[in-house]
Amino acid sequence: MKHILIVLPALFLALQGKAAKPDTAIIQVNASQERGPVKPIWSWFGYDEPNYTYMKDGVKLLTELSALSSVPVYVRAHSLLVTGDGKAALKWGSTNAYTEDAQGNPIYNWRIIDSIFDTYIKRGMKPLAQIGFMPEALSSKPQPYRHYWKPGYPYQNIFTGWAYPPKDYNKWGELVYQWVKHSVERYGKKEVESWYWELWNEPDYGYWKGTREEFFKLYDYSAAAVKRALPTARIGGADVTGGGTKFLDAFIKHCLTDTNYVTGKTGAPLDAILFHAKGSPRLVNGRVVMGMRNQLRNIADNFKLISSYPQLKNIPIIIGESDPEGCAACGMATDPQNAYRNGTMYSSYTAASFARKFELAARYGVNLTGAVTWAFEFEDQPWFYGFRDLATNGIDKPVLNVFRMFGRMKGNFVNTVSNRQYTLNQILDSSVRGSQTDIGTLAARDKKTLAVMVWNYHDKDSIGQPDPVCLNINGIPSGKVRLTHYRIDNNHSNSYEIWKAMGSPQQVSNEQYRKLEAAGQLQQLHEPEPLQASQGKLTVYTDLPGQAVSLLLFSW
């Protein structure tokens, strides 16, 4: 068997039988053993502040998100029915879609909602249209209505008049009907059929100030209105918190077996099931320690519940918020455990956790359709403030490049094995806290490419010395192969490190902005290289720093 030795910066083809270092991560990729089609569950994003959508940096980021994937990207935003002037603020947004005249007659105004959804549709994106929250004129306890929350304020301060049940369910139902009807008239039946509609957010928590039964009633009125406007529309719920399985169980039973508040018949439409899943980072001796276990356990608990209902087999499941922790607008100045967000730790956590979401879906035999990353951007805020966002002041952060990597994975997943990858059970039991890092992999191939993602993750925020990685590829066509190696680490695809090297400026020059903008894009570790596969096999070595992610794209 003949092999070629090619020496490259941090990467080279190894001769067959070359001895690896004792601590080398050995990864086997069998490209001929397919595990099923790639489902782009990563192409889903969301945020609290809907009015950022059509602002300068919001439009720029949405344009980039739409380009991540060959399939449509879904977007979920809060507060689409909230009363107000349309001005954005942290954890606040409004559209003024519903008001009433002096006689209590409805006044519908779709201008701001249209500007939000137009921004999505023009980019080929799809709304995960959240029906909520309560307009001031319909709220059963409208005052106080507008909140002025800031980082460091008690979180409970945000739950004001918009969180209460309607004083008139018929008016609420008519509002939902008119919204969906207007959407069909504006965008067309076929387009709106491709959306998902869902009611509210975390009704088991402070976002809903009514009873559980009142929420079920709200759902029945909402679902009936959606279906009346477009019978083929898809609606689901209940977007509970990760620990809200009891509420979700009661919601499912209501939709399957309870008397409908609108029709008087049994059951309510249920076209998708949604819940949230969050991790739990902590600050230990001045260092961030993540809690992936918590997030994955949230997912496992909810999958287990849903799979216990045979009549829900194959129903689309959407993790409506799936993140390392809870509050996107809580920066690291007020919440120092969130200091992971600017650098590569957010990237490696994202790669490692999404791979386990696929494992969990396979374990429970469920139809995981989407996992919403609840991160967007915060307009006109300090640079790299430590919000959970994808970009800061129009500059992409390292985590966004993981999604660019995912977007290059197409076709079918293939079998992979890594001797340094934590098992799913290990993470569910104790997270990634052992003496070694989690060097794991996810791979997919189509007719002419093989994409192999490799990450080097640990819950403790430490980079340390790079780990040697040996990647053995089997099952690709023999002959010439081109390798393009993308990397996220301190020196590649990392605007944060460049910004710090500039002196962490809060005002940047045009030249600095251009440099940061370029640094925020997905970058190659080196120039693409021609390789030679012999009998369908390749062996590649690389050094992978802690909290780094690589995507090795082989094409032929």
From TrEMBL:
GO MF assignments: hydrolase activity, hydrolyzing O-glycosyl compounds
Key words, A-Z: Glycosidase, Hydrolase, Signal
Keyword Protein transport applies: no
Keyword Iron in record: no
Coiled coil: none
Glycosyl hydrolases family 39 N-terminal catalytic domain sequence ranges: 27-520
Record: active site: 202 (proton donor)
Signal peptide region: 1-19
Pfam families: Glyco_hydro_39 (PF01229)
Domain of life assignment: Bacteria
InterPro entries associated with the record: GH, GH39_cat, Glyco_hydro_39, Glycosyl_Hydrolase_39
GO BP annotations listed: carbohydrate metabolic process
PANTHER family cross-referenced by the UniProt entry: ALPHA-L-IDURONIDASE
Family of the protein in this entry: Belongs to the glycosyl hydrolase 39 family.
Protein name, UniProt field: Beta-xylosidase
